[in-house]
Specification:
alpha/beta; two-stranded antiparallel sheet; AB_hydrolase_fold; Esterase; Esterase-like; acyltransferase activity, transferring groups other than amino-acyl groups
Length: about 350
């Protein structure tokens, strides 16, 4: 066996192990939690923003889904209009539990001085924010592409007196969705950012990631998304296959390597003097991030082949909220330029 063959074999083995770990790990809902001790501070920041009128909790009716969708909007302290809009998507839980931007990050304080509206849908668990071809017995009617690209933006533009300039960003499951939404509505978004998203749907790795989220965590049937696995709809929604549709946009893609980074600690001393071991974040979160790292490498290569510029950030770390907050901050200058130029 040549050295090149040996290296290829090692990569294939490592990828296979990551896939196996991914399928098992994504069924664990407690993963990717915030760092200890920050929840009360964030709750206080949100309460202040509500009192100052910076938080708007809207109930938006979706004709395509035949239901109301809660949408949380952050506006800056400076109320001058018009302003551009950043659509910011939550991960697999869709913001329906505690795993969302307001609970897990400092988003409220971070955008206070930014001249942008931040719009966060607070539903969509395990949906991949796409239009499903069938109503799912467990996860219901999902027409998120229609809602996010056709139904919601005109209402936001009118209510907030926007500039009509938009960007979209998301984490994990919604990192995949953000790329796909930007490809499906190319005139709607000037910029797109994906943090730890597996940018594939028609490959074995991409399909396993979707199965782990939709079936493993949500109890739904992935055949109800785009048809049976392998049917044309899966390829039609693959961000790598459709990467050419991102041409002309500002693009930011990030992923951890799966190797523990600055936010990963084996032990943490609690206020009661006891030591807690964060094995799930390091071992399980590391395996998930190793898989998303592989997806990101594939998208990076495809964009390079197409001559489409993108900012791609590979940083040591696992599949966890502190890293996604870091990446929002890192990507902000690019997003801001795209929204205001």
């Amino acid at each position: 066996m040549s050295a090149a063959d040996g290296a290829l074999r090692r990569r294939l083995v490592a990828t296979t192990l990551s896939i196996v770990a991914l399928v098992a790990a994504l069924a664990i809902p407690s993963l990717a939690s915030a760092e200890p001790g920050s929840g009360s501070t964030r709750a206080q920041a949100l309460a202040r923003a509500v009192a100052d009128g910076r938080v708007l909790d809207l109930s938006v009716y979706s004709p395509s889904m035949k239901r109301d969708v809660p949408v949380r909007v952050l506006v800056p302290a400076d109320r001058s209009v018009p302003r551009p809009t950043l659509y910011l998507l939550n991960g697999a839980g869709g913001g329906e539990g505690t795993g969302h931007w307001f609970e897990q990050t400092d988003i409220v304080d971070f955008v206070a001085d930014k001249n942008v509206n931040v719009v966060v849908p607070m539903r969509g668990a395990y949906s991949y924010y796409t239009d499903w071809v069938k109503v799912d017995p467990v996860l219901g009617r999902n027409k998120w592409t229609t809602f996010l690209t056709s139904e919601l933006p005109p209402l936001i533009d009118k209510k907030l007196t926007t500039t009509g300039v938009n960007a979209i960003a998301g984490i994990s499951m919604a990192g995949t969705s953000s790329l796909s939404l930007a490809e499906s509505a190319p005139q709607l978004y000037r910029a797109v950012a994906s943090y730890s998203g597996c940018a594939e749907t028609s490959t074995n790795l991409g399909r396993l990631a979707i199965r782990a989220v939709v079936e493993g965590r949500g109890g739904g049937d992935i055949a109800n998304i785009w048809g049976p696995v392998g049917s044309p709809g899966w390829r039609a929604h693959d961000p790598v296959v459709n990467a050419y549709k991102l041409r002309g946009k500002a693009i930011y893609i990030s992923t951890g390597t799966g190797i523990p980074g600055p936010h990963d600690q084996l032990q943490s001393q609690g206020i009661d003097g006891k030591t807690t071991i964060y094995i799930d974040q390091i071992a399980v979160g590391g395996a998930i991030e190793a898989a998303t790292h592989q997806c990101t490498l594939n998208l990076d290569r495809r964009l390079t082949q197409l001559g489409i510029p993108a900012t791609v950030d590979y940083t040591p770390g696992t599949h966890a909220w502190p890293y996604w907050q870091d990446q929002l901050v890192k990507s902000w200058p690019m997003l801001e330029r795209a929204l205001t130029d």
